[in-house]
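Memo to structure team: turn this sequence into structure tokens by end of day. - J.P.
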Amino acid sequence: MTVMLLSLAGCGKSGIERASMGDEDSDVQVYDNDDGTKTFVGRTGSNMRTQWFDFTVNDAYQTTEAIGGYTPSAGNVLVVVDMTLKNTFTESVPMSDWDFQLQWGDDSDDAFAFPVETNEAILDNQFESEFTMKINQEVNGCYIFEAPEGYDDFSVSFLEYYEDDTEGNLYFVYFSADEK
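Reply from structure team:
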């Protein structure tokens, strides 16, 4: 799948390197990229270990109905992705709704979306558009994406992006989102 990832996690490189891999007995698959980075592929429930934090997609659903006053555009659905994030770095980690993106079934360059932007949360457990995870802090919440109708299978991705404009490992979690 072709993926266009823009400005993601803005954490700086550190002298401390952390192994980026799933749990030994998990279903996370690891692929070596030509540039020396890796691509990690997991499923719902897989623990994805990035340079700065772990993340798990716990559950997901889609709806054509409005959520908290936000209505998807005609021909679109809202995809709600419940996630757990845990800071595993040696410093607090700034997070943004640009850190994760949703992809769906076709290979076109525009088959992705970042979380919907609203002035206020439209679900009680929705992640703020920007927040900071303290050292060892674990948070649970959801990101809400808008995607075209007609898809049940999606992925959420995260790309390690450093302050010096270099990119690190890439993480995909694949899941199905039933209609609710």
